[in-house]
Specification:
The complex is a heterodimer of chains A (112) and B (114).
Chain A: E1 4-7, E2 10-14, E3 19-25, E4 29-37, E5 43-48, E6 52-56, E7 59-64, E8 69-74, E9 83-91, E10 101-102, E11 106-111
Parallel strand pairs in A: 2-11
Antiparallel strand pairs in A: 1-3, 3-8, 4-5, 4-9, 6-7, 7-8, 9-10, 9-11
Chain B: E1 4-7, E2 10-13, E3 19-25, E4 31-38, E5 42-51, E6 54-57, E7 65-66, E8 76-78, E9 87-94, E10 104-105, E11 109-113
The chains are: A mainly beta (112), B mainly beta (114).
């Protein structure tokens, strides 16, 4: 099955710094989403981005589907950005299941 | 507000005592699914449903049951919970099982089985 690899696994930033998180996937995908899991365990949708570039405030994401990777940019980081960032993909499927395959995440800590 | 609602958020139970985790969505989504999240293993799919009365197994279905009698609800049933089912559970929904759209997740249910 498809493999999803995220890097780096851990990241520590000072408040105000910028960062780039990467997601590599091993096969063609129908869907790619970025999530933020906050310290309470909730999964927050950040981007639905099977291809192209999107921006939402200080966050932006780019997916290059032909090269099988996606990048999440965090600018001017804040302590509330701390948590785990997940990339999840839906493989081009032959059946009916719209299962998301998840990376193991990037754990981000933003220090004041 | 469009959302997926799970209940309870936290649950501690004893081995063998049947429990149900409810999931409801208000977006008229056809596709719903359940995942469990475990350290080092990531999120894995338990069951999914393409529409009312249509359910199927995901990757880790053992020890779980589901039902889809109404479009909005997709409860997860543990008939005889065991300690290895201690996990963080998420319900998700998408507009369609055939059209590529965004998945939305509930707040999560943290289950501990002692």
């Amino acid at each position: 099955g498809i493999q999803v690899e995220q890097s780096p696994p851990d990241l520590i930033l000072q408040e105000g710094a910028n960062s780039t998180l990467r997601c590599n996937f091993s096969d063609s995908v129908n869907n790619l989403q970025w999530f933020h899991q906050n310290p309470w365990g909730q999964l927050i949708n950040l981007f639905y981005i099977p291809s192209g570039t999107k921006q939402n405030g200080r966050l932006s994401a780019t997916t290059v589907a032909t090269e099988r990777y996606s990048l999440l940019y965090i600018s001017s980081s804040q302590t509330t950005d701390s948590g785990v960032y997940f990339c999840a993909v839906e493989q081009r499927r032959t059946g009916n299941n719209r299962k998301l395959i998840w990376g193991l995440g990037t754990s981000l800590a933003v220090n004041p | 507000e469009a959302q997926v609602t799970q209940n309870p958020r936290y649950l501690i139970t004893v081995t063998g005592k049947k429990l149900t985790v409810t999931c409801s969505q208000n977006m008229n989504h056809e596709y719903m699914s359940w995942y469990r999240q475990d350290p080092g293993l990531g999120l894995r799919q338990i069951y999914y449903s393409m529409n009312v009365e249509v359910t199927d197994k995901g990757d880790v279905p053992e020890g779980y049951k589901v039902s889809r009698k109404e479009k909005r609800n997709f409860p997860l049933i543990l008939e005889s919970p065991s300690p290895n089912q201690t996990s963080l559970y998420f319900c998700a929904s998408s507009l369609s099982g055939t059209v590529n759209t965004e998945a939305f997740f509930g707040q999560g249910t943290r289950l501990t089985v002692v």
